Amino acid sequence: MKRHIGLILTCVIFLSAVTIPYLAASSQSGTGYHFLGFLFNPIDGNSYLAKMQQGWQGQWRFTLPYTAEAGDGAYLFLFYILLGHISRLFHLPIIVTFHIARILSSVAMLAALWAWLKILFADRPCWAQRALTLIVLGSGLGWLAALWGGFTPDFWVAEAYPFLSAYANPHFPLGLAILFWVLTDIERTQDQLPWIVLFLLGCALSVILQFGLVILAVIWSALTLWRLLETHQLAWRRPLAFFSGGAFLLLYQFYAIRSDPILSGWDAQNLTPAPSVLNLLLGLLPAFLFALMGIRTAWTERNLPGRRQLILWLPLAVILIYFPFNLQRRFMLGLFVPIGALAVLGCAALPVKRSLARVLMTALTVLSLFTNLIIVWGGLSAARQHNPALFINANEADALEWLSQNASSGDIVLASPEIGLLIPAHSNLRVLYGHPFETLNASLEEQDIYNFYAGQMNLEQAQSYLSEHHVAWVYWGPHEKALGSSAFLNTLSVAYLNPMVTIYQIVDTMP
Q1: How far apart are CA 162 and CA 184, in angstroms?
Q2: Spatial distance between the Cα atoms of 163 and 372, rounded to a whole number of angstroms
Q3: Which of 114, 161, 124, 121 has its CA nearest to residue 11?
Q4: Chain centroid to CA 64: how far?
């Protein structure tokens, strides 16, 4: 039991750090404010809730909720749509289901990562726990770069770091868990997963985290080729079992997006370029320096379990990250994991006394903690101050609730970008603009909204604008008032009124 104290402590700290800040923020509700449920990347967070709303309504086909044109949709984002069905089945608020899934996925990621590290450090068991601590609690030197105004990936590229993955959403940690399970199974010589389980895991990964399947395909293919060159034997059956189902689903998703003009329009503006090389390096230091030493050790020990995975993962990931492709950043998935493992391997193999190696490992871990500490502290501070990106006032919350209960499913609502982000996350309604990627022609739609609320449209133009977009409701609250004042609002019928929010109904566009 004594030798597992470090492992238990790491897991408790990790799970507490990704849970307690949300509970603390939630406790700030009820004092005239309503916590929206996110402390990290609320723009994407609310888009996940909007997808869950579609599942709550009994749908399985995804349609873009942040654009006026619904289209036919496709079977995309099934993980979040499934969570919506689960919310309805168990009568749980959608945001509660989201966070339960996030915590359970984080536990699964911890367990899978630990199983992988135990195989990787089978010859050095005491270092497996040190590797786990660094990987799940650490990140880069963003905290140091921030002193000079830098904003490095360890502050915002959640998929690259297990801590941020667990802090942000459920699909990142669950996808990483599947990736680690498969990487662990590759190294086993007995008690391997049945082929049908591999097939199902491949299907699940393609649904939950598509780029995880691509990264795993690249690593596994490289491992297979390496072994083929050494042994002249091609081990193809197990990778085929895993990738056959996943590849089919990926091809379906690609076809569904490219064949639908609305979804293809969304995809065209869904750009996630890689950070600059310098920013990436700062987001991976100091572990990256030790990882360079670890690569040499891994090469020397390349016949030990897991070493070849480490040798291949890092350089292949870097190639993918900077490959000319619209979604480069997605290939940063789990990048800190091989770097952290290699860094510990490098420390363990240093030609110094064991006590000094432990001191270096401790220093490395401590220096890697500060960015995540800042992220957690920043979230708590923002919650105490009722940051408007994380909270809305009680009147706005009441207005959103009224709208969700009284508008017809699929109705289109005109609102400011801030409220437009929230409406599909809290109802089965659509908006003209609400998300920089999931709104078609996002920049144009956003500008039209500014023009409408600022009174830059005359009465005829405003009427034509609402009619052409089949708007059924116009939301008028603090965010909208901050944009200006439109005389056209005086011609509309008031459907709901509270001290801060007025909702107008466009009777002519109602079915």
Answers
A1: 17
A2: 8
A3: 114
A4: 18
Reported as a single tens digit per residue, the pLDDT across 352-378 is 787 888 899 999 999 999 999 999 999
Give residue for tokens 């059924």: 472
Distance CA 483, CA 478 (A): 9
80 CB contacts (<8 Å, ≥6 apart)?
Answer: 48, 51, 52, 55, 171
Question: Hey, which bits of 11-96 come out as E strands?
Answer: 33-35
Phi-psi region of 403 (alpha: psi -120 to 50; beta: other; left: phi over 0): alpha
Nearest to 297 by CA among 355, 342, 337, 357: 342
Selection from 391, 390, 380, 384 nearest residue 20 by Cα: 380
| DSSP-assigned states of every residue in 340-354 | HHHHHHHHHT-SS-H
Q: Which residues of the chain have pLDDT under 70?
A: 1-3, 508-511
Residue given tokens 């450090």 in the structure block: 121
Alpha-carbon separation of residue 188 from 64, 119, 175, 216, 237 (angstroms) = 42, 8, 21, 16, 15
Tell me the C-alpha distance between 17 and 388, whole Å: 23
pLDDT by residue (tens digit) across 143-166?
999 999 899 999 999 999 999 999
Distant-in-sequence, close-in-space partners of 292: CB < 8 Å, separation ≥ 6: 342, 346
DSSP letter at 35?
E
Q: Would you call the peptide bond into 436 cis, given omega within 30 degrees of 0 as the criterion?
A: no
Residue 115's H or E segment, with its range, is: helix 94-120
- The token duo for 356 is 């000094």
Place of tokens 């009820």: 30
Residue 462 CB partners (closer than 8 Å, separation 6+) = 452, 486, 488
Domain ranges for the chain = 2-35+93-381, 393-509
Rg of the chain over CA atoms, in angstroms? 25
Instruction: Tell the residue number behind the tokens 């923020």, with chain if given.
Output: 25
Give 3-state DSSP helix, strand, coil % of the chain, rounded to 5. Answer: 65, 5, 30
